[in-house]
């Protein structure tokens, strides 16, 4: 996955892509941000939550928002909630890119929502997408009937006309704010040696879990707004949606993902794409928040997701949602932690936060727990203290015999953090049995206070210079 372009500090102009379903809004979004960030499929209504990204347009960064298709529907229905989310995005736009399908021509829905867009008192750029070829160009001229100005014909899929679109966007953006030179070049404050390690950029958090565990409701509660589409229907979130949240001195980039089901139940192409996007988001995370429905306990699929977090080497926070509906809280908490410790030893000591995302009760405890998990994930153990502990562990339980010969383990060092990774050196160290590795890993976790994060233990054997003589 390509990294995002560098983004300057401060507010960015907001450009919102709007229009009825299946006119190519997400394809245009991906084209402008320069990467496949939004799910695209030949199915109407793929986009449900508004997706944000940063695009570089003629030397200026913009905050680009892809929205769900505008449809007439009852406010309480799924499509009604999707439309409300799109309308909320339009309200904050500095520029609206109103898209139509040039091949389909002007539809009654286009006319209806064009009238609505005109009433928003926002600058509008009319996009006639899918206008490749002579027929598309001719069809784009029909868009004059919408009364939104000159239509710009292009093909987001093939890239035709996108360069002209960038020029048009740049000309319609509000004037760029110029920061004071003293502010731009202000030196960063120096950190004392006693101060704990802090994130140098946004702390990347991914929310994962099974469908209908309350992931999107949790994100909405953290943000204090209805940013994500929620409801009783399972699997509402299809794409991975990233938002930025400021909390005290830290900034969090939080990604809400689609619910992960068993592979045997995933049979639709679109759902496979959603699962792939969720796994990709997890790979880019620093801390994973595993959301469980506390009223249902630990499901086998929850354990599979936890194993995926451990395999990717991410810090983890266990989020027990719907805690207000749990009757025997002590027994429920113990049952969940016992199941995790038995089935997944690497999750031993994982921080647990209990809350109700729907009511907001105790949700404020989550981000401090995420920050603490990140600190443990970045921990480094001094080599001197590590080897003093290592000698004690060897004296307590001698290395085992392998093929009648005892392993001679000499010293240990930490080679990296994120997650903490250690290497044991010694004669035939590569033959160390798994149970002795677990003994050392459990000791590391207890001695150096490394709960709930994956610990990697590698071995390096000493070569015998006379082996080939």
From TrEMBL:
CDD domains: EngA1 (cd01894), EngA2 (cd01895)
Source species, domain of life: Bacteria
Binding sites annotated in the UniProt record for GTP 2: 209-216, 256-260, 321-324
Keyword terms, alphabetized: GTP-binding, Nucleotide-binding, Repeat, Ribosome biogenesis
List of residues binding GTP 1: 19-26, 66-70, 129-132
GO biological process, one term: ribosome biogenesis
Coiled coil: none
Acidic residues composition bias: residue spans: 178-196
InterPro entries from the UniProt entry: G_ENGA (IPR031166), GTP-bd (IPR006073), GTPase_Der (IPR016484), KH_dom-like (IPR032859), KH_dom-like_a/b (IPR015946), P-loop_NTPase (IPR027417), Small_GTP-bd (IPR005225)
Annotated GO MF terms: GTP binding
Chain residue ranges for the region called Disordered: 176-197
A UniProt-annotated Pfam family: KH_dom-like
Gene3D superfamilies found in the cross-reference section: 3.30.300.20, P-loop containing nucleotide triphosphate hydrolases
Domain EngA-type G: 13-177, 203-378
PROSITE patterns associated with the record: G_ENGA
Family in the record: Belongs to the TRAFAC class TrmE-Era-EngA-EngB-Septin-like GTPase superfamily. EngA (Der) GTPase family.
NCBIfam families, sorted: GTPase_EngA, small_GTP
Function: GTPase that plays an essential role in the late steps of ribosome biogenesis.
Record note on quaternary structure: Associates with the 50S ribosomal subunit.
Protein name in UniProt: GTPase Der
Gene: der
């Amino acid at each position: 996955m390509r990294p995002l372009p560098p983004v300057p500090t401060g507010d960015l102009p907001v450009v919102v892509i709007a229009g009825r379903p299946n006119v190519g809004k997400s394809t245009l979004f991906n084209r402008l941000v320069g990467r496949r960030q939004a799910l695209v499929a030949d199915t109407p209504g793929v986009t449900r939550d508004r997706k944000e990204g940063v695009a570089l347009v003629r030397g200026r960064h913009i905050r680009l928002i892809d929205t769900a298709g505008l449809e007439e529907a009852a406010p309480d229905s799924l499509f009604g909630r999707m439309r409300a989310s799109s309308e909320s995005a339009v309200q904050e736009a500095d520029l609206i890119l109103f898209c139509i399908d040039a091949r389909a021509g002007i539809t009654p829905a286009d006319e209806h929502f064009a009238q609505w867009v005109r009433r928003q008192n926002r600058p509008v750029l009319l996009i006639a997408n899918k206008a490749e070829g002579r027929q598309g160009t001719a069809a784009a001229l029909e868009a004059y009937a919408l009364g939104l100005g000159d239509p710009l014909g292009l093909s987001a899929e093939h890239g035709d006309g996108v360069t002209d679109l960038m020029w048009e966007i740049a000309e319609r953006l509000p004037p760029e704010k110029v920061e004071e030179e003293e502010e731009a070049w202000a030196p960063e404050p120096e950190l004392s040696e006693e101060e704990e390690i802090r994130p140098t950029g946004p702390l990347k958090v991914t929310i994962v879990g099974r469908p209908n565990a309350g992931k999107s409701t949790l994100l909405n509660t953290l943000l204090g707004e209805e940013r994500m589409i929620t409801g009783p229907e399972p699997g509402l979130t299809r794409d991975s949606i990233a938002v930025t949240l400021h909390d005290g001195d830290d900034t969090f980039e939080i990604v809400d993902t689609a619910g992960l089901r068993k592979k045997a139940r995933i049979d639709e192409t679109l759902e496979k794409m959603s699962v792939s996007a969720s796994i990709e988001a997890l790979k880019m995370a620093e801390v994973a928040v595993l959301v469980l429905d506390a009223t249902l306990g630990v499901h086998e699929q929850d354990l599979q997701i936890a194993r995926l977090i451990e395999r990717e080497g991410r810090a983890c926070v266990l989020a027990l949602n719907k805690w207000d509906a749990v009757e025997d809280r002590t027994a429920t908490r113990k049952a969940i932690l016992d199941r995790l410790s038995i089935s997944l030893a690497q999750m031993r000591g994982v921080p647990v936060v209990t809350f109700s995302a729907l009511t907001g009760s105790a949700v404020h405890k989550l981000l401090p727990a995420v920050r603490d998990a990140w600190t443990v994930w970045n921990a480094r153990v001094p080599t001197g203290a590590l080897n003093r502990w290592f000698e004690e562990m060897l004296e307590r339980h001698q290395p085992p015999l392998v093929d009648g010969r005892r392993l001679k383990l000499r010293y240990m060092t930490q080679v990296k953090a994120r997650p903490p990774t250690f290497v044991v050196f010694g004669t035939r160290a590569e033959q160390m049995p798994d149970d002795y590795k677990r003994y050392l890993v459990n000791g590391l976790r207890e001695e150096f206070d490394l709960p709930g994060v994956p610990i990697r233990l590698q071995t390096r054997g000493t070569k015998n210079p006379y082996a080939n003589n």
